Amino acid sequence: MNGKFIKNEQLNFIIKQIALIKDSTNKNVPQNVLAAVIDLANAKILDLFPNASLEQKEMLVLAGPKTDKEYEQYIQNLSDFLLPFPEITQQQLKKMFPKHKKIKLPDLSNIDLNQLTYLSWNDLGYNKKFIVYELEGKMVGIECEFTPTSKKNLCSFCNSFGDVAYFSTVTKAKKSNNPDYYKSIGNLICVDSTECNKKISNVEYLNAFLKDSLGK
Ligand SMILES: [Zn+2]
Q: Ligand 1 mean position to 6 CA, how many Å?
């Protein structure tokens, strides 16, 4: 473990809490209100790490208010403790999608595994988005059909407003009385997964979507 204990989405969550504190500071809210905002942020951050050691808790607690530079330093310090996305090879990725012999794979050397909650890439030749994620300790992959949209909208994964496309996937869930029935589920998801990974702060939806897709 070498002391690493923070996931990408957890650091994103912490960064969002800091943005809220900065926002209150900029609005010159009364001191007691600002103190309450900081207390709440601390409670939410510590909630993410129920098993944190005393040392880790000390590192996480935001005593404040701080200057921009101090917040930067705080985030920088936490970044050293990021748990990277598990190492994966192109060969392993190919095996996850055996149906696609000519699958276009992402250049893994260009991807910062520290800033990755889920690995995803688009293959416009197949009109597909591929998503790889460690679900309950096991690496899983799904493919989605890609339908471009022209409007910006909320992404289901990161909950941020941006360039999204409609991605649908056929699930393995079957109706017992109809073996030919396959349920399809769709979502608006960021087209650019690097951007999505910078913003995702909660994996609840991602987990549910993958479980649903895999019929778990
Ligand atoms: Zn997104």
A: 20
